[in-house]
Specification:
It contains 24 helices and 37 strands. It has 1196 residues and is of the alpha+beta class. Helix 4 packs across helix 7, helix 10 runs antiparallel to helix 18 and helix 17 runs parallel beside helix 18.
Length: 1196
C-alpha cells in the first residue's frame, strides 16, 4: 500500500505541474519503471481487480482524464508524397545557384498542426519519444516556405505526415520567436500555429523552448556574464504575443534547466568550428551545478535506444552498420553510435582506450613543431620517448586525461647526435666525368649504402623530418652529395590526419642533397599484398602494420599528388648502368625522335589510317542584354544574375576536327606548327544549328578549308572515315571506340552546296560508290590487314554485386559498356527492387537490409531467410553502389541528426562489403557534397579504409551532362582496383556543357585536387538538349494515365535513335504524368518560372524552358525526375513532364521498365545513376580489364 501511495503521489505531482517529466529516460530507468508499474499493477489487481493501463508508445496513462485523442483528418487531406507535388508548394526561383542536388529535402511550413502517436494519442514531442524511435505523426495545413501567415488560406491539408525522424530548434539569431521544425523522410517542416486541440500541449513546450532561445542569444554576445545577469535577463524579458504565459522566473529556469542545457549542447554541436561553445561559459557552469543537470543525457538516451535493436521494430528505425574489424577500427570514432559492436570488444575498448578521436577539429590540425611535445617527436628530430601529443592538438574527447607529469618523463635523455659526414670510406668507386660515385659510406660509425632510407633535416626546424631513399652518392666540386628519392608522409596526402602516422607513399619527386643534411638512418618496409589477398577479407587483422619504434615505417602505394591517386608502386630493377645511381629509374623514355627545327614532316600518308586532330573552337559569344521595362516587370531588380541554372547559352562549341597535312617548326611556322584540312559539322554550314539537330552527332563534311593552329591546341587523336568504306554499320563503327567520326559528303562554302567527296578524301584501295548515299554498309574492298588495328581481347564480364541498386541505373550503364554481369543486387525498397528484376531477370535481388545480409554471410550462411543464395568469397569481381546520401546534402543544415547519421553510416556498411568480398574493382557513387562533408572527413576515412585494405584508389567529381544526358548532375565517384589490376582513369567528357556546371575540382584541407580529365573546356560532340529528350514523344494531356501508347512518329535526332534502340519497338511505356494546374500561356521571353520576388523555395533549379531556341538549351537541375521537390513543366505543352520524359533525361532507354505507381516510378528514376555516365566509367574499367588480360597473356 505504501508503494501504491508513493506511485499515486508521483503521478499527481506531474499532473499538477501540467507537463510530462522533462528528463529523458535511459533504458535502465525505463526497465525500472516498467518493473515498478508491474508491482503497482499487481497491487491494484489484488485490491481492485484491474491494472492501470499505460500507452506503450507515448507513456501516458490511458485512464488520465487529460489524455486527448486526435480527432482525425478532413476528407480532402492528402498523403505526404501527393501533398508535396501540389503546385501551391512549388515556388523555386530559377536563378537560385545553391540548389543542385535532388536529395535536398524541401522545406515548408505547417500550421494548425497536431502531433500524435500511432494510437492517436496527442502527445508532446520533446520528452525523448522521437529519440527512442517511437513513431510520432502530425497532421495540419502545409504552406510554402515564404508564407508567414498562419491562417489556413493558401495551404494544402495533409494527413499523417511522418513518422518524424527528428525535431529541431533554430532561429537563435535575434528573431522574435524560435523556429521549431520536424524532419520526415520526404521534407522538413517549420511549425507555425498548433491546432486548437493541440494548443495546450504545445504551450507547455513553448515556454522552455523560448527560454532556451533567450539563454543562447544572451550568452552569444555576453560570454563572461554571471548567473545573476542571466537571471535578470530572463525575468525582464517579455514573452512574445501568442504565448500563454506572462513572465519568466527563476523557478521556471531551474525547472527546465535540463532541457535548456540539452539545447545549448545541440546548438554547440551544430555551430561552426570557429564558434566558441556556449556550454563552457561561467553562467552555464553555474546553472549546471545549481540545477544538477546531467551533461550528454539526451545523447546517452539516444545511444541506449539504438544499442538495443531488439526493442526497435524493423520499420521503426535503421539498423546499425555491420562492419568488418578493419572498417570498424577506422570508422569507429566517427560513427560510434551507428556501428554495431561486439559487447566484449566494446568493454575491452572502453577499459583500455587512450587514443585521440581523430575526427574533431583539434585532431585535424597539424603539429605546430614548436612546443615541447613536438620537439621530442622523432619526426621533428627528437628522441620520441615522451610520446605526448602536440600541445595544439590535445584532443578534448579523450576518455582518459594524460597526466601532467607525463610531459616531463625522460626529459633529460640526450638527443641523438646529428650525423656529420666523415670522409667517404673506400668502396667500389666508378667514375662519371668529374663525379666519383660511391656505393657505401660511413658516417659516425654507421654504414650507409645506396638503397638505404634516411631522415633528412629540413631548413625549418618546426617542420617534420623528410624521409627519402638514397639512390646515389658521389663527391664532386660541390661537396659530398646524395640523390634523394622522396617519400610522402600520409599526412601530406589527401588522407591528412586520418592516415597512419607510420605509413609512407612513394612519389615522383627527387632531389640532390648534401650528405650533411642526413639526420639518421630509418627502416622503410614495403608491405606487399599477400598471394592470398583476395580471400583474406573480413579477417580479424590488426590495423597496426609495424611497431612504432621511432625509426620504422612502411609503404604500400605510390601516390599522385595532383590527382590524389593511390596506385601500386612500379616494379623497377636496377641495371648495371645505374646500380650506383638509382634504385628507381627516373628517366622518361623519349617516344619520338627529335625533329630538326627547320624541317617539315609531311603526314599526308595518314589517310590510309585516318588519324585526325581535335582542337577547340572559339568560345560562344554571350547574348547582348536587353533593356527591361521596369513597370511591366517590377521585380526584375531581384535577378542578381542573368545566369539561368541549366542554361546552355554559354556552352562552347564542340572541338573542330582536322586532318594533319604537315608539322613544321621554327621560323616557317611562325609559332604555329600544324597545318591541317578541317572537316566541318552541319551546324557550320548554311543550314545552321537546326539541321544539326537531326543529324548524327559524329557526322562531318569534308572541306578543303585549311587552317594553321598551335600544337598546344591539339586535344588528341580521333578517327575519321568515309561512311561507304565501312565494313560494318555506321552505328557499330561509332560504338566501337571513342572519338570516331565519319563523312559521306563534302561541303563547298562558296556555292553553299553539298558534293561528293574528292578521291583523295577517301581511303586508297577502299573506294565505294562515292555517292554519299550509303547506309553505312561496306561497298568496296575491305581494308588491308595493315590498316586494321589489333582487336582488343574480349575479357569475360565481371560478376557484379550492386548494393543500394535502386531500379538499376548503374548496372544498366555497365551492361551497355559490356564490362559486367550483375548477378546480385540489394535494394530494400520493393518497387525499385521489382523494377531491377524486370530489367535483369537473371539477377538475384535481395530486398533485405544490407547489414542483415552481410552479417549472414560473415556468419557462414549460404542462403538468406527466403532461400536465396548469398554470394560467397571469391564470387564477386566488381562491387558498385551508391549509399543513401541525404545526410551528405549541403543544403541540409541538420545533417548531423541521428537519422542522417544512420543514412551516412551505410557508407561503412558498403566498405565492409568491399573488405569482405575483396572484388577486383570497386565503385562508390554519391552526391558532390560527399567529398566535402564534415571537412572531407568521410571521404578521407573512405580512402584510408581502401588503402589499408590494399586497394589502389582515387576519387573525382564528374558532370553527367558531359556524358550525354540532358541535365546537370555532378556526382562524386570513388574508384578502387585490387592489387595487380590497373586503376581506372576517369572518362574524358564526350559532350560540351555549360562551363558553370563543370567546375569539378575539389578542395581538401586547403589543397586543390583535380581528376585526370583534360577536356575541361570543350568536347568532341554537341550538348544533348531538352529537344533531344522529348520532342519525338506524342503529345499527351495533363494527367495522362495510359501506361502504353504508340509513338506515332519516327525519331528525329541522334539521341532519340539511340534511346529507342536498334530493334523496332512500337509501344511507348510510362508516358504518364500527374494532374497539375496548367501553367497558362507560354511566356515568349523565357521559361515558366515563379517571379524572382516570390522568395526561395525548395523546388527545381530550372523548369524546362519554353524558349524557341530550345535546341540550344539544356534542361533543369539534377532533380528533373523528382516531382516531390517541385513541378517540372513541359516546355511546350501545358502539363508537367511525364515519367518517360524524366527517364530519358537520365539516359534510360525507352525499353527500360519501371514498377509501381507514378510517384514510385518518378522516385526510381530520380534516385538512379544516369546510365550514360555509368557506361563511360564502365568503358574505363573494361579497358583496365583488357590491359590486365594482355599483361597476363604476355607473361605466359
Amino acid at each position: 500500500l505504501s508503494l501504491l501511495s508513493k506511485g499515486s503521489n508521483k503521478r499527481k505531482s506531474e499532473e499538477v505541474n501540467g507537463e510530462a517529466k522533462p528528463e529523458l529516460m535511459n533504458v535502465e530507468k525505463e526497465e525500472e519503471e516498467e518493473l515498478e508499474e508491474k508491482v503497482r499493477g499487481d497491487i491494484f489487481g489484488v485490491i481492485f481487480g484491474t491494472t492501470p493501463p499505460k500507452c506503450l508508445d507515448c507513456r501516458q496513462y490511458l485512464d488520465d482524464p487529460d489524455l486527448k485523442f486526435f480527432q482525425g483528418d478532413p476528407d480532402d487531406a492528402l498523403e505526404e508524397p501527393e501533398m508535396l507535388t501540389d503546385e501551391r508548394l512549388s515556388i523555386f526561383d530559377a536563378n537560385e545557384d545553391g540548389f543542385e542536388s535532388y536529395e535536398d529535402l524541401p522545406q515548408h511550413k505547417v500550421t494548425s498542426f497536431s502531433v500524435y502517436d500511432k494510437r492517436g494519442h496527442l502527445c508532446p514531442f520533446d520528452t525523448g519519444l522521437i529519440e527512442r524511435n517511437i513513431e510520432l505523426y502530425f497532421s495540419g495545413v502545409v504552406k510554402p516556405i515564404y508564407d508567414d501567415n498562419p491562417c489556413l488560406d493558401g495551404g494544402v491539408r495533409a494527413k499523417k505526415l511522418g513518422p518524424i525522424n527528428a525535431w529541431w530548434i533554430t532561429g537563435f539569431d535575434g528573431g522574435e520567436k524560435a523556429l521549431i521544425g520536424f524532419s520526415t523522410a520526404f521534407a522538413d517542416y517549420i511549425l507555425m500555429e498548433p491546432s486548437e486541440e493541440y494548443a495546450p500541449t504545445f504551450a507547455l513546450m513553448q515556454e522552455k523552448i523560448y527560454m532556451s532561445k533567450i539563454v543562447v542569444e544572451f550568452l552569444q554576445n555576453n560570454r563572461h556574464v554571471s548567473y545573476e545577469d542571466l537571471l535578470n535577463k530572463i525575468e525582464t524579458t517579455v514573452p512574445p504575443a501568442g504565448l500563454n504565459f506572462n513572465r519568466f522566473t527563476e523557478d521556471s529556469l531551474l525547472r527546465h534547466a535540463q532541457f535548456v542545457v540539452e539545447q545549448v549542447e545541440s546548438y554547440d554541436e551544430a555551430g561552426d568550428s570557429d564558434e566558441p561553445p556556449v556550454l563552457i561559459t561561467p553562467c552555464m557552469r553555474d546553472l549546471i551545478k545549481l540545477a544538477g543537470v546531467t551533461l550528454g543525457k539526451r545523447r546517452a538516451v539516444r545511444r541506449q535506444a539504438i544499442r538495443h535493436p531488439t526493442r526497435i521494430d524493423k520499420d521503426k528505425g535503421p539498423t546499425k552498420a555491420t562492419t568488418t574489424k578493419l572498417v570498424y577500427l577506422i570508422f569507429d570514432t566517427f560513427f560510434s553510435e551507428q556501428i554495431e559492436k561486439d559487447e566484449r570488444e566494446e568493454d575491452k575498448e572502453n577499459a583500455t582506450k587512450r587514443r585521440r578521436c581523430g575526427v574533431c577539429e583539434v585532431c585535424q590540425q597539424p603539429e605546430c613543431g614548436k612546443c615541447k611535445a613536438c620537439q621530442n617527436m622523432v619526426k621533428f628530430g627528437g628522441s620520441g620517448r615522451s610520446k605526448q601529443a602536440c600541445l595544439q592538438r590535445r584532443c578534448p574527447n579523450l576518455a582518459v586525461r594524460e597526466a601532467d607529469e607525463d610531459e616531463e618523463v625522460n626529459d633529460n635523455i640526450p638527443e641523438m647526435p646529428s650525423l656529420s659526414p666523415d670522409p667517404l670510406s673506400p668502396s667500389p668507386n666508378p667514375h662519371d666525368g668529374k663525379k666519383d660515385y660511391y656505393q657505401r659510406v660511413c658516417i659516425d660509425s654507421e654504414t650507409l649504402e645506396v638503397g638505404d632510407c634516411v631522415s633528412v633535416s629540413p631548413d625549418d626546424p618546426t617542420k617534420p623530418l623528410y624521409l627519402a631513399r638514397v639512390t646515389a652518392m658521389w663527391e664532386d666540386s660541390g661537396g659530398q652529395m646524395f640523390h634523394a628519392h622522396w617519400f610522402c608522409l600520409g599526412s601530406d596526402t589527401v588522407l591528412g590526419a586520418t592516415s597512419d602516422p607510420l605509413e609512407l607513399f612513394l612519389v615522383d619527386e627527387c632531389e640532390d642533397m648534401q650528405l650533411s643534411y642526413i639526420h639518421g638512418k630509418v627502416n622503410v618496409i614495403y608491405k606487399a599484398p599477400s598471394d592470398n589477398w583476395a580471400m583474406e577479407g573480413g579477417l580479424d587483422t590488426e590495423i597496426k602494420m609495424v611497431e612504432d619504434d621511432g625509426r620504422t615505417y612502411f609503404y604500400q602505394m605510390w601516390y599522385d599528388q595532383e590527382y590524389a591517386r593511390f596506385e601500386s608502386p612500379p616494379a623497377a630493377q636496377p641495371t648495371d648502368d645505374n646500380k650506383y645511381k638509382s634504385v628507381f629509374d627516373p628517366t622518361i623514355p623519349n617516344l619520338h625522335p627529335a625533329l630538326d627545327p627547320n624541317t617539315t614532316t609531311n603526314t599526308t600518308n595518314l589517310s590510309k589510317t585516318p588519324e585526325s586532330q581535335i582542337s577547340p573552337a572559339s568560345p560562344a559569344k554571350r547574348p547582348k542584354k536587353e533593356a527591361v521595362d521596369e513597370e511591366l516587370h517590377p521585380e526584375h531588380y531581384r535577378k542578381y544574375s542573368e545566369y539561368i541554372k541549366g542554361s546552355n547559352l554559354d556552352a562552347p562549341e564542340p572541338f573542330r576536327v582536322g586532318r594533319i597535312k604537315s608539322i613544321c617548326f621554327g621560323v616557317r611556322g611562325n609559332g604555329k606548327p600544324n597545318e591541317s584540312d578541317l572537316d566541318i559539322r552541319l551546324e557550320n554550314t548554311h543550314k545552321s544549328t537546326k539541321a544539326s539537330y537531326h543529324a548524327d552527332i559524329n557526322l562531318l563534311y569534308w572541306s578543303d578549308e585549311e587552317a594553321t593552329v598551335e600544337f598546344r591546341a591539339v586535344q588528341g587523336r580521333c578517327s575519321v572515315l568515309y561512311g561507304e568504306d565501312l565494313q560494318q554499320s555506321i552505328q557499330e563503327y561509332s560504338m566501337g571506340g571513342s572519338d570516331r567520326f565519319y563523312f559521306l559528303e563534302a561541303y563547298n562554302a562558296k556555292t553553299k552546296s553539298f558534293e561528293d567527296p574528292p578521291n583523295h578524301a577517301r581511303s586508297s584501295g577502299n573506294k565505294g560508290k562515292g555517292k554519299g548515299k550509303g547506309k553505312g554498309k561496306g561497298k568496296g574492298k575491305a581494308p588491308g590487314p595493315e590498316q586494321e588495328p589489333e582487336p582488343a581481347p574480349a575479357p569475360p564480364k565481371l560478376r557484379t554485386l550492386d548494393v543500394f541498386s535502386g531500379c538499376g541505373g548503374l548496372s544498366e550503364g555497365f551492361h551497355q559498356a559490356g564490362v559486367s554481369e550483375t548477378l546480385w543486387a540489394i535494394e530494400m525498397w520493393e518497387p525499385a527492387a521489382q523494377a531491377f528484376r524486370l530489367n535483369n531477370p537473371g539477377s538475384t535481388v535481395f530486398t533485405e537490409d544490407c547489414n542483415v545480409l552481410l552479417k549472414l554471410v560473415m556468419a557462414g550462411e549460404k542462403t538468406n531467410s527466403l532461400g536465396q543464395k548469398l554470394p560467397q568469397k571469391g564470387d564477386v569481381e566488381m562491387l558498385c553502389g551508391g549509399p543513401p546520401c541525404q545526410g551528405f546534402s549541403g543544403m541540409n543544415r541538420f545533417n548531423s541528426r541521428t537519422y542522417s547519421k544512420f543514412k551516412n553510416s551505410l557508407v561503412v556498411s558498403f566498405l565492409s562489403y568491399c573488405d569482405y568480398y575483396r572484388p577486383r574493382f570497386f565503385l562508390l557513387e554519391n552526391v558532390r557534397n560527399f567529398v566535402s562533408f564534415k571537412r572531407s572527413m568521410v571521404l578521407k576515412l573512405t580512402l584510408r579504409c581502401l588503402v589499408r585494405m590494399g586497394y589502389q584508389c582515387t576519387f573525382g567529381v564528374l558532370q553527367a551532362g558531359q556524358y550525354g544526358v540532358a541535365q546537370t548532375r555532378r556526382r562524386a565517384i570513388v574508384l578502387a582496383a585490387a592489387p595487380g589490376e590497373k586503376l581506372p582513369m576517369f572518362p574524358e567528357p564526350l559532350h560540351v556543357f555549360a562551363p558553370r556546371a563543370c567546375q569539378l575540382s575539389v578542395v581538401v584541407d586547403d589543397k586543390k585536387f583535380v581528376s585526370n580529365i583534360t577536356r575541361t573546356y570543350s568536347g568532341p560532340f554537341r550538348t544533348i538538349t531538352v529537344r533531344d529528350t522529348m520532342s519525338d514523344l506524342p503529345e499527351i494531356r495533363n494527367g495522362a494515365s495510359a501506361l502504353e501508347i504508340s509513338y506515332n512518329g519516327e525519331p528525329q535526332s541522334w539521341f532519340q535513335r539511340q534511346i529507342r534502340g536498334s530493334q523496332y519497338q512500337p509501344i511507348l511505356r510510362d508516358h504518364i504524368c500527374k494532374v497539375g494546374t496548367a501553367p497558362g500561356p507560354p511566356d515568349p521571353t523565357g521559361s515558366h518560372r515563379i517571379p524572382p520576388g516570390s522568395g526561395r523555395g525548395s523546388g527545381l533549379g530550372l523548369v524546362l524552358t519554353n524558349d524557341p531556341r530550345l535546341g540550344q538549351r539544356c534542361p533543369q537541375s539534377p532533380a528533373v525526375a523528382v516531382p516531390l521537390q517541385g513541378r517540372v513543366l513541359h516546355p511546350e505543352q501545358h502539363r508537367v513532364v511525364s515519367v518517360r520524359e524524366c527517364a530519358r533525361s537520365q539516359g534510360f532507354p525507352d525499353t527500360y521498365r519501371l514498377f509501381g505507381n507514378i510517384l514510385d516510378k518518378h522516385r526510381q528514376v530520380g534516385n538512379a545513376v544516369p546510365p550514360p555516365l555509368a557506361k563511360a566509367i564502365g568503358l574505363e574499367i573494361k579497358a583496365c580489364a583488357v590491359a590486365k588480360l594482355r599483361q597476363d597473356s604476355a607473361g605466359e
